[in-house]
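Run log, item B.
One chain of 264 residues. Sequence copied directly from the ordering sheet:
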Amino acid sequence: MIFVNGQNIRRETNKVQRSIGYCPQTDTVITHFTGRENLVYFLILRGYSKNSAEILAEAIARKHGFYSHIDKRVNVYSGGNKRKLCLAIALLGDAPILALDEPTSGVDPGSRRYMFSLITEASRGKTTLLTTHHLEDCEAICTRALIMANGKFKCIGSLQHLKTKFAAGYFIIIKLEANKQGNPPTDTQLKSLKDYMFENFADPPLVEELLFSLTYRVSNKDTPWSKAFSVMENAEKSFPIEDISIEQCGLDEICSWRNEEKVF
C-alpha cells in the first residue's frame, strides 16, 4: 500500500490528487487560453467559485510577475512567462504537498531568484519535492537533498551532512593587493606566494588565477580549517594580500562523484 498525506492512492485517488500541487518540467498549460482563463479554470478545479476565481486570478498574476500578459493567449508567452504561469497553477489551493520539476528552467536569473522566493514562501509547513540541475537552488531552499546520476541514487541527507561527508575540503580565495601604481604583484611575489601555498597545503590545485586573485581548492582532509586560518594569517603578513576568504565546497563538488559507485 502507498499512502500520500495519510490517504491511500488507490482508494482515495481524488483526495490524493487534491493534496498535491504539481509543476511539470514541460509547460502543460492550455495554450489557446489566456493567462487569466488558465488561472480561473484551475482555480475552479480547486473548488473556488467563478467569482472568487476571477478575483484571485488577477492577484496571482501580479504576485507571479506576468500581470501585463494576463489577457494574452499563452501560445504567445515567452518561455519564462509560461514557467511563471505553471508555477502559479502548482501553488493554487494551498496544497500540503508540492512536486516541482525544474520549475525555473528557461527563466532569466532575476526571475529565477524571484520565483524561488515564492517557492520558499509557499513551502513553509509543506512537503516540497524539487528536481533541478541548478544546485544553488537546492542550497537556497532545501533542507535535504538526494543526488541521482546515471539512473542511480548516489547519496541522500541534509545539505550539511552531504557537504561534510562527500565535499571534503574547501576553497581559499586570495585577493591580491595592488602596488602604488595600481599594478598587480610582480611575478617574483606571485611565485613566492604559490610556493608558500604548495609547502603548507600539500600541493593544492590552483583552480582560478585572475589578475588580482588566486583561488585554491584544498581537498586534503588532514588540513583542518583551524590550520588554514593560521597559515593564511601568516601569509597576509608576508605577501601583498588585501583579503582572504575560506569557503566550504558546495553541492556541485559532490556531483563530481557522479561516475563513482558509492551509494549509502
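Observations after the first pass:
- The radius of gyration is 25 Å.
- Residues 3-142 form a domain with the Rossmann fold fold (CATH 3.40.50.300).
Flagged for discussion on Thursday.
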